[in-house]
Amino acid sequence: MRVERMLEACALLIDEVGYDGVTTTLIAERAGVAVGSLYQFFPDKRAVVQALTTRNLDRFMELIAERLSSATLEHWWDAVDMVFDAYVQMYRHVPGFTQIRFGDVVDLRLMDDQRDNNTVIADRLAVLLADRFALPLTDLRLPISVSVEIADGILNLAFRRKLFHEDVMIAEAKRVVRGYLSGHLD
Predict the structure, then answer these.
(1) How far apart are CA 77 and CA 99, in angstroms?
(2) pLDDT of 36-53, one tens digit each?
(3) Which of 59, 90, 103, 162 is deepest in the core (most CB within 10 A)?
(4) Model confidence over 58-75: pLDDT tens digits?
(5) Closest C-alpha among 7, 20, 24 to residue 99
(6) pTM for this one?
(7) Burial code of 47-57, b = ≥16 C-beta within 10 A, e = fewer?
(8) Which residue, 110, 89, 140, is CA-closest to 44?
(9) Which residues contact residue 74 at a Cβ distance below 8 angstroms, ignoring those fewer than 6 apart?
(10) Residues 6+ apart with CB under 8 A from 66
């Protein structure tokens, strides 16, 4: 499919030259399509990255749902670990993800004009976890929203600022989020 080729080309280019270095012409060339063909689907580079970000979020949620459906969880924090592990897996293996993640580098409201990116992620996670654990969604919205913000900040230290070893910061993020959620979920 042409759109998938364009998104994959964009992701690879982001890894190679960064978001600022990517152009629609480069995306089209890498995808093996005419630039006019790219413009049939996307008005500009931002729109391509927005679609890539949406694809990343969908993959993230699918990965978590898949892991949750096949896992035997002894405690709710095992689900927290799965969410972190899915994020780390994407960060380490999905082209373009290290640079744009869920779009916050480009625009804090890239995925939704009404809500910031972390709110979109938190809402999707809350729905997923409410369904999996038969919990009221209203009880999960606040703690999941706060947890996403906490995790985002700590993982930023792990992956972007590189102040400490990644694995140390990932473990710290898990510990802090579990500690916060224990006051809400136990």
Answers:
(1) 28
(2) 999 999 999 999 999 999
(3) 103
(4) 999 999 999 998 988 887
(5) 20
(6) 0.87
(7) ebbbbbbbbbb
(8) 110
(9) none
(10) none
